Amino acid sequence: MSTHLSWKAKEATVGELAERAGVATSALRFYEREGLIHSRRTSGNQRRYSRDTLRRVAFIRASQRLGMPLAAIREVLGLLPDNRTPTREDWARVSACWRADLDERIRLMQQLRDNLTDCIGCGCLSIDVCALANPYDRLGDEGPGARRLAQPRPCPGGED
Ligand code: FES
């Protein structure tokens, strides 16, 4: 089954967009309610999406997979122009916003990958090395959470 949108099509129905983007129509309606994508209405009150909405949806999906909060996605998509198809330069602005956040997530994931077989200082005292690495859960005095894993840095203006 082909999911191609005709190359001549400048707009897509909700079904066409859903099929080509690989998402449910309910997801598209949700994104629209959340202000992440926009459509125009036909005289018959049907939604029509500009073709570049496919790229926005792909960006939303990829960002969600990386754990980006919806509010942050909305914020960076707000940097794109509403009145024309975003250019590479527009997307570069969005990408620059994501860089610091992605670098931080990569750092946290690498630390998780590298330290998960050791004591992470979470207070469980459940593996043999905990008695040495976190005797009597002393790391709990420093604060909550897994003290030997990187703690997320507060995101300026973010809501993580
Ligand atoms: S792994 Fe939880 S305290 Fe060591």
Automatic annotation (TrEMBL):
Alphabetized Pfam families for the sequence: MerR (PF00376), MerR-DNA-bind (PF09278)
Gene3D superfamilies: 1.10.1660.10
Protein name stated in the entry: Redox-sensitive transcriptional activator SoxR
Region called Disordered, residue ranges: 141-160
Signal peptide from the UniProt entry: none
HTH merR-type domain residues: 13-79
Keyword tags: 2Fe-2S, DNA-binding, Iron, Iron-sulfur, Metal-binding, Transcription, Transcription regulation
InterPro entries: DNA-bd_dom_put_sf (IPR009061), MerR-type_HTH_dom (IPR000551), MerR_fam (IPR047057), Redox-sen_tscrpt-act_SoxR (IPR010211), Tscrpt_reg_MerR_DNA-bd (IPR015358)
Organism listed in the record: Streptomyces hazeniae
